[in-house]
From TrEMBL:
Keyword NAD: yes
Domain (GFO/IDH/MocA-like oxidoreductase): residue spans on this chain: 135-258
Keyword annotations of the record: NAD
UniProt entry tagged with the keyword Membrane: no
Name this polypeptide is given: Gfo/Idh/MocA family oxidoreductase
Annotated ranges, domain Gfo/Idh/MocA-like oxidoreductase N-terminal: 6-119
Lineage of producing organism: Bacteria, Bacillati, Actinomycetota, Actinomycetes, Micrococcales
Length: 388
């Protein structure tokens, strides 16, 4: 560890950029300081003055100023890749907000460019990867203690957004301005965590509802089935119109089960033997006793429940700290930039499946077909340029 501080340039000084600056100012991110602020709105200069750092209205000017060692992109999704490339080609490290891009072709451009600059650090802001709950589950699953994955289901509908939320900006909830709805705005962390723990799916079939309960063009409800290979399957459901909301993740394995409620309460059941062995060796009399509550289940499985608490801001601060020490001493990144394409591909596959009514091959994902379908919707909106 070194006392050197990485000077971070914050591109976009809204709620998110302001939050990161506060964490750094308050000492939550050792080895990092705010080097400069950039925003297209001149009135944001007051925030830079309060921090005592230079202010820029053009992010290229900030990157080339010599005032920053790295940048973080707190801007609309479509801008993340081009800003990342601009920084990296000028020798500045890049931490991109999620998603790393709106579509895989775009995401690959910044990932491939970063690969040509191995001396620079390229990360994606998946702060949930530092959540102790998911860190512990990732470790448990990777250990093989519970055996192979059979099925997983994540219902996460606690993203309720009123119509007024979408009416705040012309770009919000549009194909051309935002690139999608709940899959690209609210759910990217879950799409990443799901694959981080369970593996990257090979196929996807999805039913999406577009403007289902809100006056928007993009998806506000998602139901998707995925195939992980080797017989393992998954279901992902999310929505922005459920006022009460649910957050429940289940992962079933050969030798146990994990249930996470509200991203806080974890119940782990460990079987005393693989489920199929239990099935093969159980007498019908024991089956009767099990179904009637007369069998001591302790001989079959044990269950433990753990409650996790999180400290506000600590996860974001940990990502920035990890990013800084990777630059300084090579400590491995928690969320390397190339990992960002997995969530983008899964969201794209869900869109494409819903648009075409087909199961989508994610191993050989057709990027050009997706882009053609996306551009058709952008052109129909008539408010934003087509993408390439």
């Amino acid at each position: 560890m070194t006392d050197t501080k990485i000077r971070l340039g914050i591109i976009g000084f809204g709620a998110e950029g302001g939050m990161y600056a506060t964490f750094i100012r308050d000492g939550m991110v050792p080895n990092m300081e705010v080097g400069a602020i950039c925003d297209i709105l001149p009135d944001k200069k007051a925030g830079a003055e309060e921090l005592g750092v230079p202010f820029y209205e053009n992010y290229i000017d900030m990157i080339e100023s010599g005032e920053v060692d790295a940048v973080v992109t707190c801007v609309p999704h479509y801008l993340h890749p081009e800003m990342g490339i601009a920084a990296l080609e000028r020798g500045v490290h890049a931490l991109l907000e999620k998603p790393v891009g709106v579509y895989t072709k775009q995401a690959r451009e910044v990932i491939d460019f970063a690969a040509s600059k191995p001396q620079l650090t390229f990360g994606v802001f998946f702060n949930q990867r530092t959540n102790p709950l998911y860190v512990d589950l990732k470790s448990l699953i990777a250990s093989g203690e519970l055996g192979a994955l059979r099925h997983t289901s994540w219902i996460i509908t606690n993203w309720w957004r009123p119509q007024g939320y979408y009416d705040q900006s012309d770009w919000r909830a549009t194909w051309g301005g935002e690139g999608g709805g709940v899959l690209v705005n609210q759910a990217p962390h879950q799409l990443d965590l799901w694959q981080w723990m369970c593996g990257v799916p090979q196929k996807c079939f999805a039913k999406l509802a577009f403007g289902f309960r809100r006056d928007i063009a993009v998806e506000d409800e998602v139901n998707a089935l995925v195939d992980f290979g080797n017989g393992a399957t998954g279901h992902f459901m999310t929505a922005t119109h459920d006022l009460v909301g649910t957050d429940r993740l289940e992962m079933l394995f050969d030798k146990g089960k994990i249930v996470v409620e509200n991203s806080k309460t974890v119940t782990i059941t460990r079987l005393t033997a693989p489920e199929q062995a239990i099935s093969e060796n159980m007498s019908m009399d024991d089956v009767r006793k099990l179904f009637t509550g007369q069998l001591d289940t302790g001989a079959l499985f044990e269950t433990e429940t753990t409650e996790y608490e999180s400290v506000w801001g600590q996860q974001h601060a940990t990502v920035m700290q990890n990013f800084a020490v990777n630059i300084l001493d090579g400590t491995p990144l928690i969320a390397p930039g190339p990992d960002g394409i997995n969530g983008v591909r899964l969201a794209n596959a869900m869109h494409l499946s819903a648009w075409t009514g087909e199961e989508v091959d994610m191993v050989n994902f057709d990027e050009e077909r997706y882009l053609t379908e996306l551009n058709a919707r952008i052109e129909a909106e008539g408010a934003f340029p087509a993408r390439s």
